[in-house]
């Protein structure tokens, strides 16, 4: 009897803890979305002015959000219990706590219409509920058969298994609510930036369809990748995001002459993130999009 009562009490406590964590995640996410997302990132679909320059301007604005969220996540240690199912932080479920919280967050955001926006790509698209907002529409710019490209499974793997251990210190402070909120917001920002490759690809295709169509019909991935790659542009992006890591991550003092030379995150890590993962994955999205760009279109007969 005593044992049974203890299990019941423990389960109830865990249930209440999960509810509190969910409330914290949603409240924290709402604050981040309101305060940290630049206006420039939301204006492109509203204006409908899709050019290579306007898309690049949006990508530049998204860099700010990513750097700020890197700094936010670096406040906490790894907190690996969030990501390991063996700890069974979600009783009766085979998923990790971060998976559980992420799915629940996306369900709430789907109801609020987040995924009506073609700039947003869910990590767990299965069985998302419809939006309760029925009158929100966006201009159709992407080619519908190609707009479904989704590499979030790769982003998830890279983030947790390769990048996160480089960003944060080892350890566990038990602050799982704020840590998971930071993970979710950072992953969504990275996903948004990487999947913007669909818009980049559409703009480039419309500017020079005669260059892309033969390669698309030939399914020549390497040739498409070469056509999409601009080394000088990539090097400029790497230098810019590293500088943003220095500027945004500096410790501010009232003594203007005081400089410790230390930053909240390693600025070179921001450049490494873009060089090794963000830009290559963006180009992968561009290639996958282009390979589907002619789907549903009738081939013109000469």
From TrEMBL:
GO molecular function: chorismate mutase activity
Top-rank lineage group of the source organism: Eukaryota
Reactions catalysed, as given in the entry: chorismate = prephenate
Domain Chorismate mutase intervals: 178-286
Entry keyword DNA repair: no
Known EC number: 5.4.99.5
PANTHER family: CHORISMATE MUTASE (PTHR21145)
Keyword annotations: Amino-acid biosynthesis, Aromatic amino acid biosynthesis, Cytoplasm, Isomerase
Annotated TM spans: none
Any one biological process term the GO annotation gives: chorismate metabolic process
A Pfam family per the record: CM_2
Compartments, as annotated in UniProt: Cytoplasm
InterPro entries: Chorismate_II_sf, Chorismate_mutase_AroQ_euk, CM_AroQ_sf_eucaryotic, CM_II_prokaryot
Gene3D superfamilies xref list: Chorismate mutase, AroQ class superfamily, eukaryotic
Main location: cytoplasm
Annotated metabolic or biological route of this protein: Metabolic intermediate biosynthesis; prephenate biosynthesis; prephenate from chorismate: step 1/1
The protein's name in its UniProt record: Chorismate mutase
């Amino acid at each position: 009897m005593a044992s049974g009562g203890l299990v019941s009490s423990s389960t109830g406590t865990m249930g209440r803890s999960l509810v509190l964590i969910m409330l914290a995640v949603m409240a924290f996410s709402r604050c981040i979305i309101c305060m940290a997302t630049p206006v420039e990132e939301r204006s492109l679909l509203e204006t409908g002015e899709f050019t290579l320059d306007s898309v690049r301007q949006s990508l530049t604005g998204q860099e700010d959000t990513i750097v700020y969220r890197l700094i936010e996540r670096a406040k906490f240690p790894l907190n690996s219990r969030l990501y390991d199912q063996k700890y069974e932080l979600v009783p009766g479920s085979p998923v990790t706590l971060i998976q559980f919280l992420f799915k629940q967050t996306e369900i709430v955001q789907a109801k609020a219409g987040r995924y009506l926006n073609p700039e947003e790509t869910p990590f767990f698209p299965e069985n998302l509920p419809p939006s309760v907002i029925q009158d929100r529409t966006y201009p159709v710019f992407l080619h519908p058969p190609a707009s479904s490209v989704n590499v979030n499974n790769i982003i998830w793997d890279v983030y947790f298994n390769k990048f996160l251990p480089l960003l944060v210190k080892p350890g566990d402070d038990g602050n799982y609510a704020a840590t998971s909120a930071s993970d979710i917001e950072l992953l969504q920002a990275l996903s948004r930036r990487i999947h913007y490759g669909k818009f980049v690809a559409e703009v480039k295709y419309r500017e020079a369809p005669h260059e892309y169509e033969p390669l698309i019909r030939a399914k020549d991935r390497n040739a498409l990748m070469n056509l999409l790659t601009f080394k000088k542009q990539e090097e400029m992006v790497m230098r810019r995001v590293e500088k943003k890591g220095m500027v945004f991550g500096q410790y501010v003092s009232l003594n203007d002459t005081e400089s410790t030379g230390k930053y909240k995150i390693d600025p070179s890590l921001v450049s490494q993130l873009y060089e090794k993962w963000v830009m290559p994955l963006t180009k992968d999205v561009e290639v996958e999009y282009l390979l589907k760009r002619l789907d549903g279109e009738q081939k013109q007969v000469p």
